[in-house]
Amino acid sequence: MWLLGQPTFKFREGDFPVDATTLCLLLPTEPANGRPVRMRRGARGRVWQAQRAGRPFTVTIEDGHAEGLSQVLRQCSRLPLLYTVALEIVSEEDKDGLALYKSIGGAAGHGGEEYVNVVNSSLPLLLHEFGHAIEQRARNGGNARFLDEWEGAIRADAVALSAYALQNAWEDCAEFSLAYATALRRGSLEQLGRQSPKRFRLWSWALQHVNTPPVDAPLDPEQRPACCQIG
Description:
Elements: E1 25-26, E2 35-38, E3 44-52, E4 55-62, H1 69-76, H2 84-89, E5 98-100, E6 109-111, E7 116-118, H3 123-141, H4 146-157, H5 169-186, H6 189-195, H7 197-211
Parallel strand pairs: 4-5, 5-7
Antiparallel strand pairs: 1-3, 2-3, 3-4, 6-7
C-alpha cells in the first residue's frame, strides 16, 4: 500500500491556504530589506527576523535568489501551526533559520536540527525538511532510540510511504511528516492512524514533544495533537 499514492494522503496545494489569523510577520524592529550576512554555506545573503503565533524565527535568502521574503513568509503562513516549531528550532543562536540558496549541490533541500537549506519554498519540500528538524530534536532532546523505534514501526506497519522513503528510516520519517500534515489539514488523521499505527504514534509523540511549552504557558488548542489518543 502506498499512502501518498492515495487521494487521502497525496499533497494538494489547495489544502494549505494562508492562515490569515496567524500570519508570519517581520518583527517591528526589522529593516524591510534585511541585513547582509555570510550564510553558513558561504554564500552572501540577507537575513530577517520574523515571528508566527509568538514563535520567533529567522529567514536567510542568498543574494540573487528568485524568491523574495514576502513569498517565503506567505508559504510559511500556510504551514500547520504544529510545524512552525521547526522554524524556531533552526533559528536558534548561530543558525541561519530557513535558508534559501540558489543551489545546494543538486539537491532540493537538506534538513536537520541545525539547519533547513532549500532551493525554494515549495510547501511539500518544507514539510519534508521540517520533518527532519522535528525528528532530530525529538531524538536528541527526548528519545535517543527514536530512529531505532521508527525502523521497527516501518516493519510493523508494513506500509510504504513513497519510493524516496524506502532509502532509510530518516527519509521515511520525513515523508511521514508530509503525509501527517496533509492528513491533519484534511481531517483524516484517524485514517492515517489506522493504516500506519506505529509510525503514527511515534510522530504524534514527536510533534507533541517539540511543541511542549514551558509549564506556565498553556498549549494552543490547535497545537495539542489529540490524535495521540488513537489506538
